[in-house]
Amino acid sequence: MEDSIFRKFSDIETKEVAPGFFSKLIHTENNTINFIEVKKGSAIQRHRHINQQCSFAIEGKFELTVNDIPQILEPGIFAIIPPDVFHSGIAITDCKLIDIFSPVREDYKKL
Fold it and tell me: Is 65:55 a contact under the CB 8 Å cutoff?
């Protein structure tokens, strides 16, 4: 297998990026892709960052609040959060999410 192009997802270390948020992170030249498993009831506090964030729910329900407006993310519903916009969230159920950040999350590269 060509290691510079094809890789094994199972080789990516899982990191707890916040309590109850377990991530597998892929960093490309331009993006960070975050595959997250979140335990029911786990929350991420209100924050903002310089990155645009696209958030997708693959399984379960996650309440995402952007600019104080809550919305349930579930399969079929996604969010595009502009840079420097406040957001927070809580897992309504156990869930699997994918977040894509642009540019690369330099803070996540240090985890």
Answer: no
**81: which residues sit within 8 A by CB, 6+ positions away?**
52, 53, 54, 55, 66, 87
Which amino acid makes up residue 92?
I
Angular region, 5: left φ>0, alpha ψ -120 to 50, beta rest: alpha
CA 31/CA 105 separation, integer angstroms: 7
Q: What is the pLDDT along the chain (111 residues), one digit of tens a residue?
A: 566 789 999 999 999 999 999 999 999 999 999 999 999 999 999 999 999 999 999 999 999 999 999 999 999 999 999 999 999 999 999 999 999 999 999 999 998
- The tally of CA atoms less than 13 A away on the side-chain side of residue 26 is 14
Token look-up 């498993």 returns 37
Which of 32, 29, 10, 8 minimizes the C-alpha distance to 98? 32
Report the alpha-carbon angle 83-59-18, nearest 5: 50
Q: How far is CA 13 from the centre of its chain?
A: 15
